[in-house]
Design brief:
Elements lengths: L1 H46 L2 H99 L9 H27 L4 H69 L3 H19 L8 H19 L6 H15 L4 E3 L2 E3 L7 H23 L4 H14 L1 H14 L16 H7 L4 E2 L2 E2 L2 H20 L12 H12 L7 H43 L6 H16 L17
Antiparallel strand pairs: 1-2, 3-4
Helix pairs in contact: 1-2, 2-3, 2-4, 3-4, 4-5, 5-10, 6-7, 6-8, 7-9, 8-10, 8-12, 9-10, 9-12, 12-14, 13-14, 14-15
Amino acid sequence: MEERTMLYCNSLEECEEELRQLTWQRIQERVKEQRAIMDQKLEEIRQQSSAQLEATLQQQLLELRQMNHQLMMAEQESMVMIEQEMRDKMDEYRNHNESSQKRYSETMDVIQQANVRSQERRRRRSTKCSEIKQEATQLLDVLSSIMKTCKYPQLLEDVTSKMAERGRQSLTKAVTDLDHMIHNQSATNENIAEYRQMVSTVASYLGDIKVAMEMANKKGDEQLKLKQQREKEEQLKIAEKKAKEEAKKAAVAADFAASCSPVGRYNNAVTEIANLQKKLEPLKSKDPEIKKLRLKLLSSVNHPVNAIAPHTRQHLLDKVQRLKTLLEGRVVTTADRTVSIREHPLALDYCTKELADKLVRQGDTQVSAKPEAAFAVAAVAIAMAVSFPRVRDLIVAHFYSSCPILVPIYIPKTGDISEDDHKRMQGYRVVGGILESEENYYKRISGIIRLYAAIIQYPVPKDVPHPHGPEHGWAWLANILNTEPRNGITATALLNFLEVAGYRLMECYGRQFVKLLRLLGSSYMPMIEKVTASDQKGSFVRLQLFLEKITKASSIPKPPGYITVDLTRT
């Protein structure tokens, strides 16, 4: 307001100055016009005679005085008119200024009232937005809660899943947009109507979603219960079948135990493993915590054993130390998971059984594919067997159970035993319900025999008792020569055993071992040849060539991959 008043005052001063300049300009123009007239008259007088000049002069003087008087009067009139114009302008400006100030005040009052009304409308719209936002937030929480209660989302119909997801997206968008409108007070009546309708739509089908979730949960629970029941029945069938198989093995072993000591060893091995498996039944529980512990214990055994390779002593020593740490009850870490056998009373038995089983199975997996690896596995097995006698007993039991020829024993086929069951007793494996081929069987058995031979011949320090030393190899070879050979398996077992353990047995028994080899070549080889089928002569021929070679050289060479590192002292 003060700025507008100052502006009007400045305008009045400028107008007054303009009027003064205009008045002065007019006076100067009138004076110039009168002087020009007087100059013209004087020129006319000069041209007249002296007599006329005086009369004329007087006349002109009188006229000049009159003109001067008229000029003065005109100037006074002009000044009066200018002053009157200036007063009129000043009055006009004052009136205009007062009117403008009044209109300005009225306009400002109108604007202020309009702002108050606009703020009130924005406040009411923001309040409505807050109410809709709160309702949308509550609906979103309810929808999320309903979705979380659905245990089997895969059983929901596609329409229900899409409806729930669309509702979640709509409510999330509504909450975000409404929050923005509340903050900026930018909501319109159209926005309010749109989001109110959106929230009402979601609320209308929320009940249908809840019913669909409950139906999916009910259906899923029924399916899970049915699945668990089927699994239980299947486990019972498997356990029953396994029990029958174990009973058959035990019956066969019992029949021969009285007349043959190797059969007794086989029977003891089978019984020991079966009893241990029965003892460990609680660890096969489907309880999530038991299952988690079992997997961690199994991983702690499998990782170091799977990593055994014919590298440096430090490499093998690391695997032994990790396994010892586990069996001694200290905490071990595998794949960022820690575990200790102290977490369950049966954990030690479980780890001992799995370690023995895993070491023996390295024969039919690792050694069968890479024969020179037998000595690295044997070094670890010897170290663990020296420190843990229970590991030693179970390693031998698993060797006998998985490969009866190492007892040695040939399990005869009786009338109540099927062909497949008989082969399983001899160590054949069933994969996917199908019995493995003879080629695969002989390859696996060769790996197991080579690993067994590597353990028997593996040297240990003099002050450390060998857990299963060369004397067992001598006894095995003597027992083999005192039994009737069988097609394929006898030649395969002798060849793989002598290639690995022959060098060490020669060192230990010298001439006695040479006599045993001569007996094998002169008396037993013809017996093997007689029972060997024409299409399975491979192992027999290789054994014959091996015997001829060592007889000619009077020595047995070290086997490929032969190592003698001592891991019993860590």
